[in-house]
Each structure stands twice: as structure tokens, then as C-alpha cells.
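Thread title: Can someone regenerate the structure for this chain?

I was given the following input by a collaborator and told the matching C-alpha cells would be attached. They weren't. Posting the sequence so someone can regenerate them.
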Amino acid sequence: MRKYFGTDGVRGKVGTFPITPDFALRLGYAAGKVLASRRKKPAVIIGKDTRLSGYLFESALEAGFAYAGVDVYMAGPIPTPAIAYLTKTLRLSAGVVISASHNPYHDNGIKFFSADGSKLPDDIELEIEAVLDQEMVIANRLGKVRRLEDARGRYIEFCKSTFPNALDLKGLKIVLDCAHGATYYVAPYVFEELGADIIRIGCNPDGLNINDGYGSTHPESMLAEVKRTGADYGIAFDGDGDRVVIADKHGNLLNGDKLIYLIVQAYAAIGNRLPGVVGTVMTNMAMEVALKNQGYEFVRAKVGDRYVVEELLNRGWLVGGEASGHILCLDKHSTGDGIIAALQVLSGIVSLAKEPHEVIDWQEYPQTMLNVHLNKEVEDWQSNSKSAIDEAVASLQDDGRVIVRASGTEPLVRVMVEAKDSDQALKWANKIADAIKG
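Best answer:
Regenerated them for you:
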């Protein structure tokens, strides 16, 4: 069992352990020692989103790495996927991101990428946790720290390179909602330089407004701006830029499931039919049915893009993701990337010459999702809810699904019931939630 690392690094409320400067210092040192044992001249890159607390943890991590003898490149505010790309292209030992993704500003977190631009394997995280409990000993050679001045420019060009050379976005009016987060600077340049007419919202970070009423978790701002301006599409990212949702001019909101489906159809249209797609246990059953009817295999991974990546790599597949908007196109990037996913969707729309509603030929099964806050130990809610879960599964059979799981970042249990009939989904979700509460 990992003590500090969750499904996506270490995350929590700033000032509450482990999201404190002294822990960040020790985490930087521990990660540095593990990396130093694997490379002769280890070096890392550190990026962050726009939270005010990012300055604090940036300095603490930098000091920890340098004390362990690791050189550090500082990238400043930049999307999480950019750090994955820069880690790989600069041949660094690891990449570090200071972000709490879609959470409010008072939260923060620290996550790592390995040298190949993917999430750190579980065994490396466990090794880092073991070193965290050891005494800090100064390295024979202290690390150097320098600023990577062209980090944003490198990433902008990389994103543009994933869009087909024969296509452009000229004639499209697009609302870009950057959640006052890490994409606020780079995303507008990417889409403008590909020819789109851009309307910016959520692009004025002040350190406190990240994800506040804007971004992929609050798409209502983007939807309203699309309607007000008569834009063709709206694109909303989360605070660190690894999630995306898109709206069309009719006000239809396309979540990760629908965007993945669009990408699959776009790949097929250019003669690159995929063997299969990886979703998660939260992927809507209607998409699974639609893909299987077209002859695609479909596999569900655990929640978390790291597990989607593992499943894709194991099968040699390219495309997968989550309904939340984490989307992976492994022929484009090694990790989930909101900007790149949006570009693949738009390239498909342009090449197919069809609007999204003309391509997405299925309706979502109704889902009821409830968050039940925990006041008890995990064992209690599991035993309390088992009977209700079993009863729901037996009742729904092949016409629905039940997913009950503990959050990896918050003290709550997430309940999801999916069924062809919305009343059934609501009924069983409420019954399971009541059982969890005891």
C-alpha cells in the first residue's frame, strides 16, 4: 500500500499534511535520491499550474532535488502534459508537476512523470516513499537550478505538430475556456496559429481563481459564451490542461466518452481503423455497445489515466480515456493532453465534414452519480453496502452497471448506477448511498 501517493500523485489542502513545504522538501529529496541511484547525472523539470501556492512548493521541491544532487529545470506555469513532453524530449530523469488539476485553488498536489513521459510506476513511487522516512544527507555534488525560458514555445509547436499538415482551422470561431489555469497562455496560440478565430475566457489567472466557475468542471461559462457569440465550438480545459470537454454551436456538451468516439471515427475515416478502445469502469455503457456494434473491441480499466495507459500499452492500442475528459492518443503523446485531444477531435470534424451530432449515433444511458462523505473506516462502508449493491446488480442484469469506489483524493465514496431507465438508476443509487451511510 502506498502511504502518500494516490491515483495521481500526492494531493490535498494546502497547509494540511502532506501538502506542506517541509513535506515537499523531503519529497524532492527522496525522489532525487531514487533518481540519482539510476542515472549518473540526474536532472528533472518542474512545472506548475496557476495556483498561488505553486511558488511555495516550487521552491521547496527545487531545494530538495538540489540537496540530493539532482539538476533542476524550472518551466513555470505550463500544462501538465507539457512537462511529460519536455521530460522526454530533453532526455531528463523525471518531470514534476505542482497542480491539483480540477480542484479549487486552496488545494494543491505534486505528481511525477518518468523519463519516457508516462506516469511513474507504482514500484518507483513505493521506493520514493521508503526514502521519505530516511534522514536527509547532503549529496557529494549539489544540483544546479536553471530556468527553461522557451518551455511554452516548445510545447506550442509540439501541439501544432499533432494536427494534420493538410488541414487547418480557418473559418472556425472557437471559444477557449482555460479555467484561469495552466493552458491560459499556450492554448490560444495553438488554435490561433492553426487558423481559428479565438474568443478567450478563463484566461486571466490571479492565483486564486483557478477552476472557479470556469473550465471543464464548470462548462456553463463556455456554453453561455458559445451561445452569446455564435461560435462554432467551445473548448474547456481543466486547471492543469489534461482534461477537455467540447460544445457545439447547438449547445450540446460533449464529454470524454463522446470525444473518444469522435476520434475513433476520425481515425477510421483516414484509413487508420483502430482494433480497440480502452475506457474505464465509468465509461457510459451506450458507447461500449456502439463500438462493439461496429466491430471494435472495448476494455475497461480502473479509474485513473495511468491505468488506461497501462491497458493501452499492454494491448498495443492507441486511443482511450475517461468520461471526465482525460483522453489518450498514444500515437500523438505519452499521456492525456486536453489540447492535443481537442485538436484530434477538430481534425476529425474538418476531415469528415460533419458536425458532432451527425457522427455520434448513440444516446447515453442515464447515470446517477452520488458522492457519499465518509465518517467511518473503509471496511464499514464496504460491509454496510454489500447487500444493496448485490441486489442492484441482480435487478439490472445486462441493462445496467453499478460502480462503487472510494475516492483516491477525498474522504468520500463515489456511487454510480447506470441503467436504460433513469428511474432505476436513481432508485438503486440512492439505496446504495443510504446503505453506505449506515
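The longest strand covers residues 412-419.
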